[in-house]
Amino acid sequence: MDFQEHAHHHHHMREALVTALNERRPVDPTALRSDRHCPLGCWLHGEGARRWAGNHAFLGLLESHRDFHQQAGLVADQVNRGQWTEAQRSLRQGSPFAQALADLSAALRRMRATAGSLAA
Q1: Longest CA pairwise span in the chain (Å)
Q2: What is the pLDDT confidence band of residue 120, given thresholds at 50, 70 and 90?
Q3: What is the rounded CA–CA span in Å between residue 107 and residue 64?
Q4: Neighbours of 50 (CB within 10 A)
Q5: Helix axes 56-80 and 3-23, enclosed angle (nearest 10)
Q6: Do 1 and 44 form a contact (C-beta atoms < 8 A)?
Q7: Which H helix or E strand runs over 92?
Q8: pTM, two decimal places
Q9: Cα-atom radius of gyration of the chain, to the nearest Å?
Q10: Mean pLDDT in residue range 6-22
């Protein structure tokens, strides 16, 4: 499992939201809101759950990932409603979305460290 790659993937989701906002084009909030369809979500709800269920780092990652996708869906809703100013605000540093992305990145780092220490 490449946790760093999954962090990059979720940062890319942020950039896709920024691009959609700048280009004033709609995005699929249902796809963004679901924490089960991205590669990390598939792992978390599949192999990861079978291997790591009950592990604190895993449970923290599961929660952070869910929160990130909920916030991404909210931003997508704003973009789709044409709430440009609100969407811009939602993507700024310090917003709930930005905090959810930072929390997810930290949870991925903790999980990587946990997996590394148990594999050694």
Answers
A1: 50
A2: very low
A3: 7
A4: 8
A5: 10
A6: no
A7: none
A8: 0.92
A9: 15
A10: 94
